[in-house]
Design a protein that fits this description.
The chain is an alpha+beta fold. It is about 60% helix and about 15% strand. A five-stranded antiparallel beta sheet has the order 2-3-1-4-5. Helix 1 crosses helix 3 and helix 4 crosses helix 5.
C-alpha cells in the first residue's frame, strides 16, 4: 500500500469516526470468510457497516477526534462495526458475539464517549431510534384516543337509553 492509498484510508476512517453514532471495536481472530460475510450482511440490514483496517491507520484517523482514547482498543486483529443509528451497530455486534465466541467485543465509542465491553452491552440493550419514536408517538396518541372515547361515550349512552325506552314503550 503506497502513501496515497494510506492517506485515502485515513480520510475514510476519519469520516467514519466523525459521522457514526456508534463504533464498536472487536477481535475477530479465527472467524471464517463466510462468518464475516454473515456479520456484514446483518450489519447492512440495520444500516451499519463493518470495516477492517490497519490499527496504525485507524489510530492516525482518530487523532484530533473526540473519541481518540478509543485508539487504546486497537491492538491485534480488530474489526470496526459502525452505524449512524447510535444503537444499531452495538445491537448487531452484541448479538453476533453471543452467537460466535471468536468475535470478542473490546469496546467502542459513542460520539466523544469511549465505551468498554459493558458500555457496548448497555448501548445494545437500549431501544433503537425507531422503537423510541414509536413509544413517543403512542404516548402522544393515547390521550387523544382517550379524549375521543370520552366525547363519544355520552352520545352512545344517550342512544342506549333511548333504545331501552323505545323497547319498553313497544312492549
Amino acid at each position: 500500500m503506497d502513501r496515497a492509498q494510506k492517506e485515502k484510508v485515513v480520510d475514510e476512517l476519519g469520516q467514519i469516526f466523525a459521522s457514526s453514532g456508534v463504533v464498536v471495536v472487536a477481535h475477530y481472530a479465527g472467524i471464517t470468510v463466510a462468518e464475516m460475510q454473515d456479520l456484514r450482511a446483518k450489519m447492512r440490514e440495520v444500516g451499519g457497516s463493518v470495516r477492517v483496517a490497519k490499527n496504525k491507520l485507524a489510530k492516525i484517523a482518530l487523532e484530533g477526534n473526540p473519541a481518540a482514547k478509543m485508539g487504546d482498543l486497537l491492538t491485534g486483529m480488530t474489526v470496526m462495526a459502525y452505524s449512524e443509528d447510535p444503537v444499531a451497530a452495538a445491537k448487531v455486534a452484541d448479538a453476533y458475539a453471543k452467537a460466535n465466541e471468536k468475535f470478542v467485543i473490546l469496546g467502542g465509542a459513542m460520539g466523544d464517549t469511549v465505551l468498554d465491553q459493558a458500555g457496548v452491552k448497555a448501548v445494545a440493550s437500549m431501544p433503537s431510534r425507531e422503537e423510541l419514536i414509536a413509544q413517543i408517538v403512542s404516548c402522544i396518541g393515547a390521550p387523544a384516543a382517550n379524549l375521543a372515547g370520552a366525547f363519544g361515550a355520552p352520545g352512545a349512552n344517550i342512544a342506549s337509553i333511548l333504545s331501552t325506552i323505545e323497547e319498553k314503550a313497544a312492549a
